[in-house]
Write a structure and sequence with these properties.
The protein is α+β, with helices and mostly antiparallel strands. It is built from 2 helices and 2 strands, in the order βααβ. Strands 1-2 form a two-stranded antiparallel ribbon. Helix 1 (about 20-50) packs antiparallel against helix 2. The two termini are about 25 Å apart.
């Protein structure tokens, strides 16, 4: 058998079962909330600049770009902490959260 025919890459798997711990769940949902808040702040700023909407209550663009992501981060992390016992129970009953994709060990 020649060396060029031998595959040296690890075997790739397409499905995996995982259960996140509390810190991992808070980090992932916090990142999603922060990104969502930032996207919402940018979207409302652009729509207000082009005149499609009028922001009366949230008139300061700088404060929107600072507060919306922080509010999204806070609430997503807060609700993931509150919902973690339910998530843990569901994952235990289903033997993990099923993920599909390309996983390499």
């Amino acid at each position: 058998m020649s060396e060029e025919n031998m595959d040296t890459t690890p075997t790739a798997h397409t499905q995996s079962a995982v259960q996140l711990n509390l810190v991992s769940l808070v980090l992932i949902t916090g990142l999603a909330g922060f990104s969502g808040g930032l996207a919402w702040a940018v979207l409302t700023t652009v729509l207000d600049l082009f005149g499609f909407i009028q922001l009366d209550k949230f008139g300061s663009y700088i404060s929107n770009l600072l507060t919306f992501p922080l509010i999204g981060l806070f609430f997503s992390a807060f609700f993931s902490v509150i919902g973690y016992p339910v998530y843990k129970r569901i994952c235990k009953r289903l033997r993990g959260q099923k993920l599909s994709g390309l996983f390499i060990n």
